[in-house]
Amino acid sequence: MALLLFDIDGTLLAPRGLGRRAFDASLRALYGRVPEQAFPYDGLMDVAIAEKTLALLGVDSDDAAVRALLAEYVRRLPAERPASREGFLCPGVPTVLDEAISRGHTLFLLTGNLRSSAYVKLGFFGLEGYFPGGAFSGDALRRHDLVPVALARAARGAGRPFGSSETWIVGDSVHDVRTARDGGVRCAAVCTGTTPAEALRREGPDLLLADLAAPGPLWAAVEGAP
Ligand SMILES: [Mg+2]
Question: 170: closest CA among 198, 207, 142, 133?
């Protein structure tokens, strides 16, 4: 039975700008403006998004400023709750999660979201109950350092350790693939975010799937692994 570490944005959810809107609302509240130059949030940790945004704004991006911006973001994120789920769930979600559990796999998160923002976003769509825990922005500075955090927490939760060959990151960005490689675990990349399949393929994931709506190859790879 495998440990599946799911990314959130672009893998489970198509965020459709809800995180960015909450960030922008926070910046307007704190600084009265947003940066003129936008940058993709894909695969970045919330702490890094905050640092980069403050730098683009030309204001001090010390720890206190980053913490204040993220606190405001977490406070404002619930207001972004969509009126309906439609268009927000990636293909195959949540069926693939039910199937993973019924096949005996352990689900956990490995995400650049803060813990609080991760569960707010999942809660918008009733997905929070699938994930008893995870590793989040704020648990480590670099994304691949989240892997040992997730492994330790999953082991505590499941009552047994998970080896690197039975641990899979499921994610949509090159950062997810690199995190798996640098963290010594395996990776199933999905093309449901904004990263083209070819760019994901170049990173050499163990498995590349169009989406999670036809997860047969995922089960074959995960369950066939020694
Ligand atoms: Mg993602």
Answer: 207
